[in-house]
From TrEMBL:
Keywords: Carbohydrate metabolism, Isomerase, Metal-binding. Pathway: Carbohydrate degradation. Binds 1 divalent metal cation per subunit. This is Ribulose-phosphate 3-epimerase. A divalent metal cation binds at H32, D34, H65, D174. Substrate binds at S7, H65, G141, F142, G143, G144, D174, G175, G176. Belongs to the ribulose-phosphate 3-epimerase family.
Amino acid sequence: MSELAPSILSADFTHLGEQLHTLEKSGTKVLHIDVMDGAFVPSISFGMPVIRSIRKDCGMFFDVHLMIQEPVRYIREFVEAGADSITVHVEACSDIQKTIDEMKQYRIKVALSVNPATGVDAVLPYLDQIDMVLVMGVEPGFGGQKLIPQTLEKVKELDRLRKEKGLSYQIELDGGVNRENLTKIIEHGTDIAVAGTAVFRGNIRENVRDLQEVIAGAS
Ligand SMILES: O=C(CO)[C@H](O)[C@H](O)COP(=O)(O)O
Ligand SMILES: [Fe+2]
């Protein structure tokens, strides 16, 4: 069955601890953590201190999405802060293989991401080395955007490729996920659907329950 990964980008940071407890009590297993550097993307979010702090009191799987230039420089620090999985953007790495090799030194899941304008070709040479491909459903940098429907074709292609090649990488779709489009997203082959706005706007418990119901119905 597919998994929901709430993104804390849309959380209320004055109540972050409580909101994370609510997610855990609602059955959330994967927490999506968006790190932005103001260089690879226009916005700046947060970094290791926040991850280190929430790690102390949170049992969820930390799915860290690095939207930073040359992430190879910081892999060790994010692992030490508590990342269980690290996703880097192919567009942000001058040497993708070196970045994968660096990530593989640690006991974490290794993932590559592609922006809406980047084709599946960019990750093809690495598919047998990685645990997940993150397909951006929106331009990276901000929450609350609308899903670009064409990005789902990449999900479909990655699903086809893993069957054809006998590989087991997961496919994550990030951005613009809501109750209305979630079934379609899953039907295209998504294993992990990231949702920020759709989880944190309004009642978190009800939102998670509703999204999980859609997932259960689609799987
Ligand atoms: O990586 C991201 C933005 O770059 C976020 O994970 C994504 O946008 C989630 O937020 P929303 O569900 O509001 O689109
Ligand atoms: Fe993200």
